[in-house]
Amino acid sequence: MLKDRVVVMESIVSHEDWKTCFAQLGPALLLFARRWTESRADAEDVVQEAFVRFWRRHHSLENRGLLYATVRSAALDRLRSEQRRNRREALASLDQEAQCEPVFAPEDESQQLLAAAVERLPNEQREVVILKIWNELTFAEIATALAISQNTAASRYRYALGSLRKILQPHE
User: Domain boundary at 44, 67, 98, which?
Assistant: First the structure.
């Protein structure tokens, strides 16, 4: 009887830990998921799917890099699924629909310039910058999330900063 109560108490604590983790990391994971989705609602679905996958595999909440990798995987799975569905629909209707790009509407001109500069970066560099600056991941966590080495993550970040510097500096 006491053993059953301990198991129930452990699952309650675990449940609360997951809720806290989701509340703390949810917004950053949502920003990361937006990279591959057309809407906020889709990104929310991706983050929820990733959290469920992560929880079902009993991964440690301390492994943020793996959590980001799970979000990336769920987002890419969703993207591939949508692409297959779109191809089937296009073949069925023989009508090509225009792709919608998510709109990023910064509040001031400097934010608009920065957003435009970040969008000009190669995808590999852009991913690292978003994870490093906006999500505050370490290079080790970025390496895990993107399935690359820490040195590669650091190099991409360094190259991205150099590119941003060139893009944003006025020509002399």
Answer: 98
CA gap 159, 146 in Å, rounded: 17
Sign of CA dihedral 93, 98, 104, 105: negative
Q: 82 with 112, same domain? A: no
Tens of pLDDT along 51-79?
888 888 888 778 888 989 999 999 999 98
Looking from the CA of 16 toward its CB, the CA atoms found within 13 Å total: 5
Cβ(142)–Cβ(131) below 8 Å: yes
- DSSP symbols for 119-161: HHS-HHHHHHHIIIIIS---HHHHHHHHTS-HHHHHHHHHHHH
The answer to whether the beta carbons of residues 127 and 31 sit under 8 Å apart is no
The domain of 2 spans 1-98
Specify whether 172 is located in the same domain as 90. no
Closest among 72, 75, 65, 68 to 144, alpha carbons compared: 65
| Statement to judge: residues 70 and 110 lie in one domain | no
Integer Cα distance of 119 and 115 in angstroms: 6
pLDDT in tens, 80-119: 888 888 777 766 665 443 343 334 455 677 778 888 888 8
Neighbours of 93 (CB within 10 A): 9
CA distance 144 to 138: 10
Shared-domain flag, residues 23 and 82: yes
